[in-house]
Amino acid sequence: MQLSKKILGTLETPCLVIDVDKARANVEVMQKAADQAGCRLRPHIKTHKMPFFARMQTEAGAAGICCAKVSEAEVMASAGLDDIFIAYPMVGSFRIKRAIDLCRKLKRLILGVDSLSCAHALSLAAKQAGVTLEVRLEIDSGLKRSGVVREDAPALAEKIAGMPALNLTGIYTFKGLLYDGAFTHDNHLAGEEEGLILAQTGEKIKALGITINDLSGGSSPTAIETARTGRINEIRPGTYIFKDLLLCKENVARVEDIAVRFAATVVSCPGEDYAVIDGGTKCFPTDQSLNAPPFFFNSYAQVEGHEDLRLTRMNEEHGIITSDTGKTGLTVGQVLTLIPIHVCTAVNMHNSVYLLEKGIIRQAAVEGRGMLV
Length: 373
Hints:
By secondary structure, this protein is α/β, with parallel strands linked by helices. It has helices spanning 5-8, 20-36, 51-59, 70-78, 93-103, 116-129, 153-161, 187-206, 223-227, 245-249, 343-347; strands at 15-19, 40-41, 65-67, 83-89, 108-113, 133-140, 148-149, 166-172, 178-179, 182-183, 214-217, 234-235, 260-271, 274-277, 301-303, 309-314, 319-323, 335-340, 352-357, 360-365. The mean pLDDT is 97.
């Protein structure tokens, strides 16, 4: 993704630029892979947070979308998306109330649960509201985040299935590149295990006489491999639409596939050994630690076209660029483009982005940005 001097000259920096045509190509590749595997694609909107791209995904064939928070789902619903899975424990009366209100407006709303107390509160509120809520049980497949320990899943599923006003229709997990509880570079191995865990857990639940229809898994690094196992019927990747340096390290992207660039202007060159750009921690995410396993990134974003330059230190409004050679060679007013390590958190730093489509640049709001509830 090369931005011309003409395009760079129109930007107010620091900012993000998204190549819409490249994003659309990424969408089509994933949709084709899911279709060939006979698996539904329900993309997670956490990456783009914009109805524009959610519609692009559903128009390409996605069965629906996935959100992390009810506030994200509200944004998508207001834009006409009507089949939404909120893959997050629905805990808190405020959250449940908003989910019930949303349920009445959508063709399909699916909610995540991973505990008895979570399910009980949902059941009580749904019964009082006179609605039935579709739920899926989250399984911990090794990440040790949210999700019931899989050995305990059948017993919990049986209790949830017996609760009034709840309809347990499936199970789901988020695993990423793990195998036997540890990081692996083998996407096939990680995907095979993910499919097996979901299938085996699903069979144990069905053996109790509980009908579940959906087995949902697959992050961007494992989505295609998990789908190809034939053991599940839904995948929920998110990052694939834009891709980033993490996905390159995780063996499912090339730098030329990445549809997003930061643009930042050099605002100060106090010495030849460093320069200052107009983006700091309010612009560039820091969720990936530098020089740490498993990937040992040496810069918070990769400076495009300058292999020796590193963004290694930031304050709120200042980014410090250094060079492996000791001399940056940068000048005040120069505009740099940088490639994000983790694009999901990069987009969430910005209220708006620039969309580049067929050579035309326009600014667009990131409507789902900052939706925390």
